[in-house]
Amino acid sequence: IAYKSGDYSITGFLARPIVRYNPDGQPAALYPAVILNHDGRQGVTRAWRETALEFARRGYVVAASSFRGQQGLEGGSQGRFEFAKGEVVDFLQLTQLVRKLDYVDPQRMVVIGEGHGASVTAAGIGRSNIFRSAVVISPTLFSASPEYGYAGLQRLRQVSSDMLGGSISESALVRELKAREAFTNIGNLRTPVLVIATGSDPDLATTLRWVDTLRAKGVEQRLLRYPSMFAGFVTATDNGIRPPDWRENRDNAWENIFQWVDHYAPISPLLE
User: Fold this and answer.
1) Who contacts 56 (Cβ-Cβ below 8 Å, separation ≥6)?
2) What Cα–Cα distance (Å) separates residue 10 from each residue in 75, 93, 179, 182?
């Protein structure tokens, strides 16, 4: 698929069950929808396509964006990598387009993000409460507030040269943090969140603080921790050097993800 996000043309991937229509041209049933926000900078990879197809087999309409500046299997998107800034706009624009599909139930939508996509997800649900639930896996979380310790400042400093075209001042970094805010908007957040964290998450301490802040603000949340696992294990494939229990943990994580999604955005009995 391709769609417009601001001035950019963005590519992506759409998977869906076979949609049947009544003689009057109306869909015979409405489907819940899942938005997938992938990790990395290689667009919608084969692993994420397989994830989308698995949800489609279960009865979900699934859409995933190759965010701005990425080259996916479906082609390149315009723009440049912005690390959870402009990509949030791409994600929310795709969501609006999926909501308007005549076979999608806009009241049953879920978002899942991993890594960079989890950062996009966390920022997005702070701006929009249209999702019934969210899954956030190994995110980098940002805050420009001293109350939350300028979370993500070090990570943003590390990538600023590549992303912003050179080193920038500390004050400019704080402004960039604010544009990726995930903490301050928690007071407006109404979306139940499943958070998955591993022992190797580079921003684990900030993730745990974010979960504590969700809890303190009364946001429904659940934390799953896999201390022996590596960031990205949920969508990893076997390369022969994985920890002995990685496959078992990956399957357990997906079982919990499917249960979480099914609980908040169940398939219509007519489709089961």
Assistant:
1) 15, 16, 17, 62
2) 9, 10, 21, 24
CA distances, 196 to each of 36, 84, 256, 260 (Å): 15, 18, 10, 12
pLDDT in tens, 157-175: 888 877 766 777 888 888 9
Cα separation, 112 vs 110, whole angstroms: 7
Q: What's the pLDDT score for residue 270?
A: 55
- As a whole-number percent, the residues of the chain with pLDDT over 90 amount to 78
Residues 6+ positions from 216 with CB-CB distance below 8 Å: none
Q: Is 69 in a helix, a strand, or coil?
A: coil
- The helix or strand, by DSSP H or E, that contains position 219, with its residue range, turns out to be none
SS3 for 160?
helix
35 phi/psi in degrees, rounded to 5: -100, 130
Euclidean distance between CA atoms 216 and 197, whole angstroms:
19
What are the CA-CA distances from residue 128 to residues 45, 146, 181, 203 (Å)?
26, 24, 13, 24
Rg, C-alpha atoms of the chain: 18
